[in-house]
Amino acid sequence: MKKVKKTKIDLISLTAHQLKNPLSAMKLSMQMLSEGDFGKISKEQKDIVEKILQKNETLICLVDDLLDMAKIEEKRHIHNLTLVNIDDLIESLIRFEQEEIINKKIEFKFEKPTNLQKIKLDKEKISMALQNILNNAVKYTPICGKITISLIQNGENLEIKIQDSGIGIPENQKEKLFSKFFRASNVVKIETTGSGLGLAIAKDIIESHHGKIWLESKEGEGSSFFVSLPIM
Ligand code: ADP
Fold this sequence. Notes:
binds adenosine-5'-diphosphate
């Protein structure tokens, strides 16, 4: 089953890559045609070229989405389980965001108990999942906001809470948040960059570790994302 799936993903990836080059070449030629680089064209001819350009752009976006999706499928598989000190791992993720935290004058806290048990994880994959969540907290929290990461050992599980005082999530959109390509309406208005893939990737990775991810949020007040991982 795994082999068939991998072949399918490789095929999607390969096809998308093969399509991207001719589509980009067509775009360039049509842009030159539209701008009169090959000689003057009439208004009617220009309108038609513009329409073709629009359709071409739609196809390019579709191909990009296919490439992203193939990337997710690749990323979700956990390969390399080792005993990890989650405390150190989170410290390294914080260092990665440090510059932006300072630039935005965010009040940042990392609360953790002493003597946390090491846990078995695919370090690279879990780092990617948690980085996506932390990066969102920084991205969607305004200047002088607050972010707190807390680690709690809860019986057989380790719980990681990433709480921010950011823009929050509209109540009627919380359910869709972990779907591929979904971005909430309040975010789309203020922040144009983002693929809507980060949380979908995070969920896949966490569930591959038999963990859980969920959230609490109030629009305009902030969000808390929770990750629970079995200590095993
Ligand atoms: P994006 O690339 O848009 O950040 P994600 O998959 O990481 O994609 O997140 C999906 C959507 O979830 C975001 O577009 C945003 O609407 C919402 N979101 C995620 N984290 C937060 C957060 N900390 N505060 C507010 N909204 C968030």
